[in-house]
Amino acid sequence: MMRLTFEGFLGSYVKYLSGENTLALPRLVRLLSTEPRLVEPLVLWAVATGHGDRLARLLEDDRALASEVALVERLASEDRLETALASGDPVLRPEYAKAWRSYAARRDAGARDARLKLDARARVLALKAEKGVSQYRMAKDLGLNPGNLNAFLVQGDPRKLGLDNAYALVRYLEAA
């Protein structure tokens, strides 16, 4: 699976916030007055994709926002943008850092879920030993693939069970 990039995330985030399936700058600029949450992701996306100058020209009537675009472009040209976003640098409004945190949460979701599944696995193994329930019984009662359950429990492969099934195992054993 391809790793999520900040630019790719921003493109989908801008489309989502705009409520339209477009990245056409003139159309998105017209939406800024009715959708204020779109401002920071749009500025970030425009700068990340090399459209910052064009966005600034389209915003010539809004000098404050055009100067924000210039600031974000300057940070990007100095390779300081991602650091500023991640650290919540006060030079940028907090809404910019919020867009970065949304990206980081989506980017890191797989690793976070794998950790949670492995934590659930440890709990399942302890409860399984305590309650004496067989893997076969767990698989049958919960409708799980026995091979995937075995790979998850014996080999510790978090890819073999979804997070919801890992937690279902814990609940099943706690109730047993």
Alpha plus pi helix count:
11
Alpha carbon gap, first and last residue: 37 Å
* Average pLDDT score: 95
What overall geometry do the principal axes of the alpha carbons give? elongated
Count structural domains.
2
Q: Indicate the low-confidence ranges by residue numbers.
A: none
**SS-based class:** mainly alpha
Task: Round the Cα radius of gyration to an integer and report it.
Answer: 23 Å
Largest sheet: none
DSSP helix fraction: over 70%
How do the helices and strands follow one another from N- to C-terminus?
HHHHHHHHHHH
Overview of the structural elements:
The protein has 176 residues and is mainly alpha-helical. It has two domains: 6-107, no CATH class; 110-175, 434 Repressor (Amino-terminal Domain), CATH 1.10.260. Helices cover 71% and strands 0% of the residues. It has eleven helices and no strands. The longest helix has 23 residues, at 109-131.
Short description:
The protein is mainly α.
What labels describe this entry?
single chain; 176 residues; mainly alpha; 434 Repressor (Amino-terminal Domain); 2 domains; elongated
Task: Please write out the topology.
Elements: H1 6-18, H2 25-31, H3 39-48, H4 52-58, H5 63-77, H6 81-87, H7 94-107, H8 109-131, H9 135-142, H10 146-153, H11 163-175
Helix pairs in contact: 1-3, 3-4, 3-5, 4-5, 6-7, 8-11
